[in-house]
Design the sequence.
C-alpha cells in the first residue's frame, strides 16, 4: 500500500509543489519508506526523490522549490525492492520523458522486464513499477500517441494497480485502476487524482471514484474516462460531494483505523497470496530447507507467536520436528547447526525476535523471516526473506497483519503438502464473506463481553492458537481479563472459577467438535454462558453461536475474534487504535 497524488493546473507555479507536499503528509500513513515528486513544466520533466519520511525528504531535496503545471507525488510502502533512493517513485523511461507512480503489485513484471531489456531498455531500480514507463516509451516508439501507448502498457500488466503517468510536454495525467483505490478531485482550474480523499480534501469536496479496470486522463478542466470495454463514461452521473473532515476521510468513513483495517483484510490477503505466487521460487527453496532441517524453531511475540504456534502444530502433524518459541524466552532453547529458525514479526524490528535469531544464527542455524516491512532488521539478518505485503497497519492491535500471517503460513503449507493452490487462492473471498456475514452478531457478542470482568477462550488443536489470539485481542483493546486454554486442560484447575454467567468463548474450527462439545457441557453444567464460534460443524447448546462454512477455517475465525474485541472496546468507550501502555513495535527488552 502506497500513497499517490497527482495535480494538473492551468497555471505553472511553486504553489503546486506546496500542495503536493501537503497531500503527501496526509497520505504518509499509507507508506513511509521513501518519497518522490515529479513535475512537468515549460522546462520539461523533473524528478526529486529519496529514501525517508516526507518531512525529511522534502527538506533535503528542496521539493517545495519545484515548479510546474503538472505534479505527481508518491510515498512508498516497499513491496518489490528495498527502501532506497533508486527504488523510490516516480520511475522513468530511458530518456527521462515519462514518469510513473504506482500503488499495487505487477505479477508479470519479471517477464516484462526481460522482454524490455532484450529491446534495449535500461532499468535503474529493483521495482515492479519501472516496467510501466518503459512500456509506454516502447509503444510510443512504435508510433502510438501518448494515450494509446498508456492504454497498451496497462493492457500488458497482470496484477493490481493504481497508476498515474505524466509525459513531458503534456498537460494531463494518465491513470488506470485495478483493485487499488483511485479518486479524482474536481477543482476550479485544476484537478486532482489520488489514492485517498484526504490528499485533496482542503481544495475540493467534489469527487469521482474510479472503478476497477477503468482508465483515462485528467486535464486542468476535464476528465476523460473509459470503462473496461473501452466505452466512454459519462462522469457527470458519477460525481458526488463528500462532507468529511480530514481525519474521518483518512479512515475512509470508518470511525477507527482498526475496523478499517479489519475490512481491508481481504485486500491484504489477496496482495499476500499474489506476492507469494510471484515469489514461488523463494517459497520452494524454503520448503527444501524445511524438509532438510533437523528441527524447525518458530519464534515470535504476541500475535506473531500465535501465528507461529499454528504453523508449528501443522508441521508437527506432518512429522516435522517443530518447536514454537515465545521470543522473549529464546535463551531457553539450545539450537545447533542443522536447525532452521522461522522468525515471524509484523514490523521486522521486534527486539526479542531479533536477539533470538542472532543467537541462533551464531550457533549455525539458517534463518527464514516472515515480516511485513521490506528490509527491516529481522529481514536483513535472514537467509530467506518472505514478505506479507499487507500494507501499513495504523491500529496498534494486529488485525489484517495476523490474517495475512496465517495466509502466508497456509500458502507455505499448501506447497509443502503439494496441495492444489486453488483453495488458497479463494482466501480473499473467504475473509470477505466472513466479515459480511458476522459483523452484526460479533457486535452483539462484543457488547455483552464488554460488561464482563473475566473470560475464558477455549480451543483444541489448530483452534487453540486462534483462541489465544482472541483472548489477547480483547485484553489489548477492551481491557477485559481473558485467558485462553486448551479446552481439555480447562478442567484441570480453570473450571473452578466458573459460576453462573461466567463467559466462555469456544473456538471450533470443525476438527474436534465432539471433544469441544464435551468441554462445552462441562462449562454449561457450572452455569457458564457459552459463546461458540464454529466452522463447518455446529456445536449444540451454546447460548450464542456464530456458524460458518469455510474451506479455510482459520481465515474465517481470525476476523471474527477481531471484530468481537473491537466492538467490546468501543462499547466501553475506549479508542481501539491506541490501547494504553502498548506500542505498535516493541524495540526494548
Sequence:
Amino acid at each position: 500500500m502506497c500513497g499517490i497524488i497527482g495535480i494538473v493546473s492551468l497555471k505553472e507555479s511553486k504553489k503546486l509543489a506546496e500542495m503536493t507536499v501537503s497531500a503527501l503528509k496526509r497520505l504518509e500513513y499509507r507508506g513511509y519508506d521513501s518519497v518522490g515528486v515529479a513535475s512537468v513544466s515549460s522546462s520539461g520533466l523533473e524528478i526529486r526523490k529519496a529514501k525517508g519520511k516526507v518531512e525529511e525528504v522534502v527538506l533535503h531535496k528542496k521539493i517545495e522549490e519545484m515548479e510546474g503545471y503538472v505534479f505527481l507525488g508518491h510515498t512508498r510502502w516497499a513491496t518489490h525492492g528495498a527502501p532506497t533512493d533508486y527504488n523510490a517513485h516516480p520511475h522513468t523511461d530511458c530518456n527521462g520523458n515519462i514518469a510513473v507512480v504506482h500503488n499495487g503489485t505487477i505479477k508479470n513484471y519479471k517477464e516484462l522486464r526481460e522482454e524490455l531489456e532484450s529491446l534495449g531498455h535500461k532499468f535503474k531500480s529493483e521495482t515492479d513499477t519501472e516496467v510501466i514507463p518503459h512500456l509506454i516509451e516502447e509503444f510510443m516508439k512504435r508510433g502510438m500517441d501518448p494515450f494509446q501507448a498508456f492504454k497498451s502498457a496497462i493492457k500488458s500488466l497482470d496484477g493490481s494497480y493504481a497508476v498515474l503517468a505524466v509525459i513531458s510536454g503534456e498537460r494531463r495525467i494518465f491513470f488506470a485502476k485495478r483493485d487499488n483505490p483511485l479518486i479524482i478531485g474536481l477543482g476550479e482550474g485544476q484537478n486532482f487524482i489520488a489514492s485517498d480523499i484526504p490528499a485533496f480534501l482542503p481544495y475540493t469536496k467534489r469527487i469521482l471514484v474510479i472503478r476497477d479496470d477503468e482508465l483515462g486522463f485528467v486535464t486542468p478542466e476535464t476528465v476523460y474516462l473509459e470503462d473496461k470495454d473501452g466505452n466512454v463514461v459519462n462522469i457527470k452521473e458519477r460525481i458526488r460531494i463528500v462532507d468529511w473532515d480530514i481525519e474521518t476521510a483518512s479512515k475512509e468513513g470508518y470511525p477507527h483505523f482498526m475496523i478499517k483495517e479489519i475490512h481491508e483484510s481481504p485486500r491484504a490477503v489477496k496482495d499476500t497470496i499474489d506476492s507469494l505466487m510471484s515469489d514461488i521460487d523463494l517459497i520452494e527453496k524454503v520448503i527444501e530447507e524445511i524438509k532438510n532441517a533437523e528441527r524447525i524453531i518458530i519464534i515470535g511475540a504476541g500475535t506473531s507467536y500465535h501465528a507461529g504456534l499454528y504453523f508449528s502444530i501443522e508441521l508437527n502433524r506432518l512429522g516435522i520436528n517443530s518447536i514454537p518459541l515465545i521470543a522473549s524466552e529464546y535463551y531457553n532453547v539450545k539450537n545447533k547447526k542443522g536447525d532452521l529458525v522461522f522468525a515471524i514479526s509484523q514490523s521486522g524490528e521486534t527486539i526479542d525476535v531479533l536477539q533470538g535469531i542472532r543467537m541462533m544464527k551464531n550457533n549455525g542455524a539458517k534463518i527464514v523471516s516472515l515480516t511485513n516491512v521490506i528490509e527491516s532488521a529481522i529481514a536483513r539478518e535472514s537467509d530467506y526473506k518472505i514478505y506479507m505485503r499487507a500494507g501499513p497497519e495504523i491500529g496498534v492491535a494486529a488485525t489484517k497483519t495476523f490474517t495475512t500471517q496465517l495466509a502466508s503460513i497456509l500458502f507455505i503449507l499448501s506447497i509443502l503438502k503439494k496441495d492444489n493452490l486453488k483453495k488458497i487462492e479463494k482466501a480473499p473471498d473467504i475473509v470477505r464473506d466472513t466479515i459480511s456475514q458476522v459483523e452484526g452478531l460479533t457486535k452483539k457478542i462484543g457488547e455483552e463481553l464488554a460488561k464482563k470482568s473475566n473470560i475464558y477462550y477455549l480451543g483444541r488443536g489448530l483452534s487453540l492458537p486462534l483462541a489465544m489470539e482472541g483472548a489477547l485481542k480483547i485484553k489489548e483493546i477492551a481491557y477485559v481479563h481473558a485467558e485462553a486454554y486448551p479446552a481439555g486442560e480447562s478442567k484441570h484447575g480453570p473450571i473452578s472459577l466458573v459460576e453462573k454467567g461466567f463467559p466462555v468463548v469456544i473456538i471450533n474450527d470443525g476438527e474436534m467438535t465432539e471433544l469441544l462439545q464435551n468441554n462445552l457441557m462441562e462449562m454449561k453444567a457450572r452455569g457458564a454462558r457459552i459463546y461458540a464460534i464454529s466452522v463447518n460443524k455446529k456445536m449444540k447448546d451454546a447460548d450464542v453461536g456464530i456458524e460458518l462454512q469455510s474451506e479455510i477455517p482459520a481465515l474465517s475465525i481470525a476476523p471474527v475474534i477481531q471484530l468481537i474485541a473491537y466492538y467490546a472496546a468501543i462499547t466501553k468507550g475506549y479508542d481501539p487504535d491506541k490501547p494504553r501502555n502498548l506500542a505498535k513495535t516493541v524495540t526494548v527488552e
In short: The radius of gyration is 25 Å.
